[in-house]
Structure to design on (450 residues):
């Protein structure tokens, strides 16, 4: 396993290709050219083909459902004028909220972190109350889940409040002085997400118009496509921005955002597609393992006898699929699994595992998405409740999903910056560009655990 990198040679090649400071160069040839194994190249190419093929098939399905739904709307109890406007309005709200989170995080990281941790449970609870007011069995179940989730979020916010100061320091240092083109890339991504969401919503509406069992399956397929596509869009930003920020942290140089984004699309889409499918699944497994460990504590009861085994498996799996690997995907053109494994091994060598485990960036970005989803749900769900009560549940849930992922796309930028900050430090802790923030935090965590 590769754990040592030819750092100096790589940085010298970067210096030859780019001018320092803010003078961007025009690089015509690929800036990342490393060989991969045959199996790695095959899996990356396979997932890249699968992703693009699935986009084509979903586009065909969506167009078919939209046309069929509009033609058959008069023959069924479906009212497009009452179903579409609340959802399209929610998508507009999602874009505004996503860009607002991006701006607030850049201008005042401390307030952004505190707002995310305290607004998210309040808005999630409000969505739960709205769903309960709808009164159907499905909305009642979803409402209860939302209320319970808000309580858990509140308890978590109280628990991690002491970490806010350190999280603010790292986030502020990571996002300082970003290239102007990075913000333009985020705006472009949000715009693409808006049009893509509107397109898929039109297909969902078409399937809802007829409402057969097959149409329910079509809706589930479209929603899965939405989830994967939004994850890929988010992680494309993650790879692009983390590469730019890594170069800045490692050698104090700036890279052209357009070149980094071009390389991501041209060379890293396979790895991004794999990571977009793996990271959410492995994240759920690890999160559930931690929840089980907290619940059982130190008991040895029979029902919890496999909890330690499950936690060990979850800890092993996370080394093969974690968000930190996206830095090496963009920087060294590695396959996602190899990049995740190498990054995690590097953290171990730098004795940074406690710091990585306690990092709040992922939770901050997650809660920003729940906040955004809550605002969109309240906007669309309330409108649907007034216009046509039977549409309120589905509109509320669809709006929440779209708002969540739209905000996650916007927040991929700070998450990528923090990832690059940690990885660059782990590769060279003696780099004079880093202050004592990370070493001091590691010592503090060791004392608290000791």
């Amino acid at each position: 396993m590769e754990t040592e990198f030819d750092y100096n040679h790589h940085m010298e090649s970067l210096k030859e290709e780019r001018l320092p400071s803010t003078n961007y160069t025009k690089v015509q040839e690929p800036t990342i050219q490393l060989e991969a194994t045959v199996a790695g190249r095959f899996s990356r190419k396979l997932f890249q083909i699968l992703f693009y093929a699935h986009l084509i098939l979903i586009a065909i399905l969506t167009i078919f459902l939209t046309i069929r739904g509009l033609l058959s709307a008069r023959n069924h109890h479906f009212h497009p004028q009452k179903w579409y406007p609340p959802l399209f309005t929610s998508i507009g709200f999602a874009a505004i909220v996503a860009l607002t989170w991006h701006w607030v995080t850049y201008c005042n990281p401390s307030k952004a972190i505190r707002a995310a941790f305290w607004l998210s449970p309040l808005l999630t609870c409000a969505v739960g109350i709205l769903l309960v007011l709808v009164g159907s069995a499905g909305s009642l179940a979803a409402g209860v889940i939302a209320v319970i989730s808000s309580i858990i979020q509140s308890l978590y916010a109280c628990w991690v409040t002491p970490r806010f100061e350190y999280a603010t320091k790292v986030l502020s240092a990571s996002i300082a002085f970003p290239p102007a083109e990075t913000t333009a890339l985020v705006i472009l991504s949000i715009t693409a997400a808006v049009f893509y969401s509107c397109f898929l919503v039109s297909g969902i509406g078409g399937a809802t118009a007829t409402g057969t069992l097959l149409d329910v399956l079509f809706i589930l397929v479209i929603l899965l496509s939405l989830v994967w596509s939004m994850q890929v869009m988010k992680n494309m930003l993650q790879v692009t921005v983390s590469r730019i920020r890594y170069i800045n942290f490692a050698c104090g140089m700036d890279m052209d955002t357009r070149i980094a984004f071009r390389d991501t699309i041209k060379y890293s889409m396979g790895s991004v597609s794999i990571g977009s499918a793996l990271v959410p699944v492995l994240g759920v497994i690890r999160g559930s393992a931690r929840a089980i460990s907290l619940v059982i504590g130190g008991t040895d009861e029979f029902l919890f006898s496999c909890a330690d085994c499950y936690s060990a498996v979850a800890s092993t799996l996370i080394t093969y699929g974690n968000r930190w690997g996206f830095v090496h995907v963009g920087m060294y053109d590695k396959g996602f699994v190899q990049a995740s494994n190498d990054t995690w091994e590097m953290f171990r060598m730098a004795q940074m595992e406690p710091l990585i485990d306690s990092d709040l960036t992922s939770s901050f970005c997650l809660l920003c998405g729940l906040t955004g989803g809550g605002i969109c749900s309240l906007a669309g769900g309330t409108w649907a409740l007034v216009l046509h009560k039977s549409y309120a549940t589905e509109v509320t849930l669809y709006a929440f999903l779209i708002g969540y992922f739209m905000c996650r796309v916007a927040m991929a930028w700070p998450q990528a910056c923090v990832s690059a900050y940690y990885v660059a430090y782990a590769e060279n802790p003696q780099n004079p560009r880093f202050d004592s923030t990370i070493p001091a935090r590691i010592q503090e965590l060791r004392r608290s655990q000791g």
